[in-house]
Amino acid sequence: MSWKTRVKTEQLANALVVLSSTAEDGEIEEIFVRHSSFKTSQPVKDITNCTQVEISRSPEEWKFVERLLPRKTVPIPLPKSEYPSGWKPPSGKNMSTNVGEINPPELIRILCGDLKITCCLCTCIEAFADKHLLVSPKDRRVVIVESLLCPTLFRETLAKALFQHFEVTSLLFTPSHLVTLCTLGVNTALVLDVGYQEAVLIPVYEGFPVLHAEIKTKLLSSVNGDGESNPAGLENLLDEIVEDIKVRTCFVTSLERAKKAEEGNAPPPPPDVSYSVGGLPSFNIPGRIREQAFEVLFQPDGDGNSIPTMILDSILKCSIDMRRPLAENILLIGGTAMTPGFKARLLAELKHLVLTSKYSSKIALQTFKFHTPPAKENYVAWLGGAIFGGTDILAARSLTKEVYMKTNEVPDWASLDYNRRDDEKISL
């Protein structure tokens, strides 16, 4: 599918877009909603009844500085899932990989909080619709820009709240990596979403997807290790404060400086920065920490993976005819991708890795190109969802209220029931 959308002034639409990102344990702790006006040159039918929503985990990374901006950001806290009373995971086993050992009702309560999260969603959606949108959600179309890794139970809970409580006309779950390309007018790209909790890389070829909290941990442990400049209790800093330190003071260093530091020949560090936390005394963030906090993104983990190797391995897994177009159409999204020096360092790492013995015999690529999206990386997925919501294809691809009330199911890409041809389906 090719998106040739250009932002013009022919049609006006008010929309609400939802981007969903998940933690490793499948929990979504907070929802943040953005409402905005946008303009599109695509033919629009009944656009004033299109509503879109965006969900994310770390609003501290959002910065709105251009014309095509979300109008409002509304934090909506969700209850965290908890283990059943007295229940503990079996020794040495992970709850997510051994679900057969958990009672299904208990599993639902663990992951979604059962009715608790549904009631919270209904209350919060009603609050921002009345206070910020000043419209009734009833009989409106909704677009959910989600992560492909969003838990199925959360999607079903959100759909239940929107269809049964708010009686929306239709609902569409669309991958954030795919709709991001709507902002560029291209149909092939390697989309890398580098967020607060995780990095997700999805190749999109001809319009079809081809199927980091670690920074905070490294930064906090490094700051705590500097006993001369830190006040007592620094280890108890809130995640929001550590995230603010990362965004305001840290940067990605060059490949040359990183290599010298790795060899024990570290060059002179950048200057220290004084940082104040609320009413606490200000303390120094050493230049060494400012420079090294993001190195975790480029250092191999236990499996030998890093963000640069993720990109090259993903290209290798695609067909040969796809590799060059993908390498020349790399799109970075997510708040962490806005870090100063990130794009330049990633490009240098890619050019260095393709010359190593691991990749030189497999990839004959010397050119890597990055797109510059028309919006900031942290909300470009929202803009793509807003553009998609303004096209006439929305009604044809959405799940209608009538169909949902009959089946009580939300189509899921991970289920073969929705991804097989009619002649392949097995009737029981």
TrEMBL record:
SMART domains cross-referenced by the UniProt entry: ACTIN (SM00268)
Family note: Belongs to the actin family.
Protein name: (California timema) hypothetical protein
Coiled-coil regions, chain positions: none
InterPro entries the UniProt entry points to: Actin, ATPase_NBD
Domain of life of the native organism: Eukaryota
Pfam families attached to this UniProt entry: Actin
